[in-house]
Amino acid sequence: MDWNTAVCALSGHVTYAPDEPALHDRLRAVAPSGPAWRCLRCAVFAPGPPQGSGPADEAPQVLRGPALRDAVILRLLAVERLLRGLLFLVLGYALVRFERSENSLRELFGRALPRAGALAQVFAVNLDTSSTVRHLRHLLDTRPQTLLLVAGGLFAYAAIELVEAVGLWRLARWGEYFAFVATAVFLPLEIYELVDRVTAVKVVIFLLNVFAVVYLLFAKRLFGLRGGKAAYQAARRSGSLLEIERAAAGPAG
């Protein structure tokens, strides 16, 4: 997949006219319809005036190639973390509301269950052995303090997920480390959950988190792996179209 072309198709080209004459001439072309400037992302000549101009060192930092692919993957992970964080916020809020209305819910459940018995018999369902009814009764019998403790844990986990989402969306280095540590810490718990009971949702979430941990560790060169941050930034600079054209234009002056 050509990430450069795909992103330009979605968000448009990025053009810039550098002041340096040799570099200026390499990024500019003249078409029958007028001047065109080479996109700093996909390298296609886009007709019309440049979006910016000035010294080459002040040109916008445009992600392309592997760096652009990394950014797309990290932001997709950020969206997944955001949705998960919002889900746990809703669950925590629901538990707090449930704790406050526990008595009324208990009375409602007590009145509704006997009335549902006749209907359940029509469908040959035994409510006394129903796992759903059993879980509802267990929830109603849970101490309010325990419910609040669980709600607090859900809020804390939601906060972790939302911080991950912000850091990954901003492509911040601290966000990559935070996401790696936060995700890796919960992997043993997810393995325990899979051993206890395997479901499709659990498997998908586990595989997604394993992918995130491995990807962040190797692709983003965390903890000094594969040369660390310096090697990652050097590879990113070497892929910059402006740097490639600057090298091809030769020394200034």
Task: Describe what is shown at a glance.
The chain is mainly α. Helices cover 68% and strands 6% of the residues. The chain has a domain at 3-61.
Q: How many H/I helical runs?
A: 10
**Secondary-structure element pattern, one letter each:** HEHEEEEHHHHHHHH
The overall average pLDDT, rounded, is: 81
How would you describe the oligomerization state of the chains in this entry? single chain
User: For the terminal residues, how far apart are their CA atoms?
Assistant: 39 Å
Structural class: mainly alpha
Strand line-up of the largest beta sheet:
2-3-4
| CA radius of gyration | 28 Å
Rough outline: elongated
Number of separate strands: 5
State the helical fraction.
Answer: 55-70%
Poorly predicted regions: none
Largest sheet: 3 strands, antiparallel
| Residue fraction in strands | 5-15%
What's the arrangement of secondary structure elements?
Blueprint lengths: L2 H9 L5 E2 L2 H7 E4 L2 E5 L6 E3 L5 E2 L11 H35 L1 H21 L8 H11 L2 H26 L3 H24 L3 H20 L8 H11 L2 H9 L4
Parallel strand pairs: 1-5
Antiparallel strand pairs: 2-3, 3-4
